[in-house]
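Changelog excerpt

This revision adds worked examples to the README so contributors can see how folded entries look when concatenated. The first example is reproduced verbatim below.
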Amino acid sequence: MRLHTSVICLAADGLEADDLVAGFVQEYAGPENEIIAISTDKDYIQILGHENVKLIDPATGNERTLEEWGGSADLFMFEKCIRGDAGDNVQSAYPRVRKTRIMKAWEEPLERVNMMEETWTNQDGKTMLVKEVFKENELLMDLAKQPQEWRDIMDKTIKENMENPGKFSLFQFMKFLGKFEMNKVADNVNTFAAMLSR
């Protein structure tokens, strides 16, 4: 894609796709740019806090929203950092806490401080402080809180690729399709050519 089309492909050693998607949204979201992200990953809900961004679940074709969190991407991340994510091997900052307690902590600063100072014991018998695990979870899951060295790589990668998109070569693209036996795409290359040569 990068060599034979003008589609902007973002990739950098040490970064995951969600880092670059979030970096792109943070840089380009606004009234002049509509950004549509397509992903089954619920973690991307946090990018909906940016103006003019939509998230589509390709499995259902439905648009994901922040409705469950009252339109607040910050509340979504707060709950996510409290709950953790077993699928990504991120432990809960406060296991078995009720949603009502999370909402109360979100709405009342004193309750939030009290919650963060609570402790619990993990399966190894170690005492865990909610605020310490919460901060760790923010680093692991909040796409606006990457370490500065990562942000520098993200910014450089996005800038370089936006300023230097590739050029579409029908000949090279057809060679690529033949090499990887992508016959259906080759048979309908005119359908894809317009998209790949912008």
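The second example, added in the same revision:
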Amino acid sequence: MLTAQQKKRENIAEYIIYMWQVEDLIRANHCDMNRIRATIIPQYKDLSPELQLAVIDWWDNLVEMMRLEHKEEKGHLQILVNTVNEMNTLHHQLLASPKYLSYQMQFNAVIPLIKELELKTQPRPENDIELMLMAIYSSFLLKLKGRPVTNETQQALTVFGRFLALLSKFYKDDQAGKIDWEDEV
């Protein structure tokens, strides 16, 4: 909960990837709050009793959301899907704006890597932002399983990570009202 809140404030792409990991942890515990209390909650040992209860409530709410949305086996919570879609909407606003040529140039450098990854990804994600997030998360899962990631793939992931960090900065600024869209030509 604490990590999620911090990531959501600081880097929305990291937040999405973190929350996908949380979803998988919940699935690994069979969406069973008793198992989560036994396996995950003990890791939050140095918290005040109030914060400890807040952490338990947070996990419990996520478990319930996953059940209600029928995401016990696969898929992502609607709130996360919506956040990725918000990132994608902002991405397209930045691409369409004459003010953000640097952003557009950085995205143009990423396009060949995206196109190459699209050919290897089934089913195809909804948008390029989701595709890059999925690539980073998938490589994380491969590393957890002890499977190698090629140098070429690692280089592409580094490029994706840098681009998503840039988009995350714009997202944070947009959420804070620091982007002035009114001066568009």
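Reviewer comment on example two: Residues 151-175 form the longest helix (25 residues). The chain is about 70% helix and 0% strand.
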